[in-house]
Write a structure and sequence with these properties.
Oligomer: single chain
Order of helices and strands: HHEEEEEEEHHHHEHH
Strand order of the largest sheet: 3-2-5
Structural class: alpha+beta
Shape: rod-shaped
Helix content: 40-55%
Strand content: 15-25%
Length: 313
């Protein structure tokens, strides 16, 4: 029923009420505001009073017989005699029977909701996981939703199916997989939750994991594991360095042995000339070093040419 029909109904009630009052008052064949000389002021006021009462009654009827459905919402009518109507009212103004029918307005836009769950993983680690979903009811099935769950269908349905799906999916993975394979876990949760929501005629526009943490014991164990791995790496490095130093010492000793052997062979073949040459080179280096030192004084040497320091011998 549209608004034009409601206006026609209101005008019809006004005309009917005017005709009824015309029968009760004198000079009914006169116009509403025709001031005949024979019509007294009291009769005119009486007629206007009846007209005002009629208009007020029509206004009350129109006010109680119309309801509005705003944008992004839908209406469901509950009839006291027939129950919930299967027709869903769209946006706009609609008619209802006063005191017999009652409109229930539903928001059909996407709404957010967080579902926090604490559940064990495959390796029995407590996981704190929070799921954020965007949901809305199926418009064509709003009467069924109202009959079975009412306007608070989201509080009745979403927490239960959310906990069920999250616990079932998390139990299939250990703690490490929940971190490294987060996208796979999210896809499994999305598919399972969509299947469960279809049974209740709820549409899920988006599902995402917004929070994922583990218990304090697991966090401490991970930290200790990291420290142990670092210590193991350090110990392995020290062992490898010791082995490399050992190999270097062996190579150095073999080189020294080979050098000594070559020197011995050279001495046996060519005499001690090489040793004397090394002595001369060493003395030359020592003399060069001492000549640059300020704390060294040179004294003349030779037989009978030494300096005398007036010392008693």
């Amino acid at each position: 029923i549209d608004c034009s029909y409601c206006l026609k109904l209101a005008l019809h009630e006004v005309v009917r009420l005017y005709r009824f009052t015309s029968l009760l008052l004198p000079n009914s064949n006169q116009a509403l505001f025709y001031t005949s000389p024979k019509l007294s002021m009291a009769a005119l006021l009486n007629r206007l009073g009846w007209l005002g009462i009629g208009v007020a009654g029509v206004g009350v009827v129109v006010e109680t017989a119309l309801f509005n459905v705003e944008g992004g919402r839908r209406g469901v009518i509950f009839d006291k005699f027939r129950g919930v109507s299967d027709v869903v009212r769209g946006e706009g103004t609609h008619f209802m029977v006063p005191w017999v029918q009652k409109p229930i307005i539903y928001d059909v836009r996407s709404q957010p909701r967080n579902i926090p769950v604490v559940t064990p993983s495959k390796d029995l680690q407590n996981v704190n996981i929070t799921l954020r979903i965007l949901y809305r009811p199926e418009i064509s099935n709003l009467p069924w939703i109202h009959k079975n769950y009412g306007p608070d269908f989201d509080d009745r349905v979403l927490p239960s199916i959310g906990h069920e799906v999250l616990k079932a999916v998390v139990a299939q993975h250990d703690a490490a997989e929940l971190i490294t394979q987060r996208e796979i876990v999210s896809v499994k949760i999305r598919e399972a939750l969509n299947d469960r929501a279809q049974d209740f005629h709820i549409i899920l526009d988006d599902i995402s994991i917004t929070h994922l943490t583990f218990g304090a014991e697991f966090t401490q164990a991970v930290e200790l594991k990291q420290v142990a791995q670092q210590e193991a790496e350090r110990a392995r490095f020290l062992v490898e360095r010791a082995e490399q130093e050992k190999i270097a010492n062996v190579i150095r000793a073999e080189g020294d042995s080979k050098a000594a052997e070559l020197i011995s062979m050279a001495l046996s073949e060519h005499g001690t000339g090489l040793i004397e040459l090394r002595k001369i080179e060493a003395a030359k280096d020592i003399a060069g070093t001492m000549s640059r030192s300020r704390n060294v004084a040179y004294l003349p040497g030779g037989q009978g040419k030494g300096m005398l320091f007036n010392m008693q011998v």
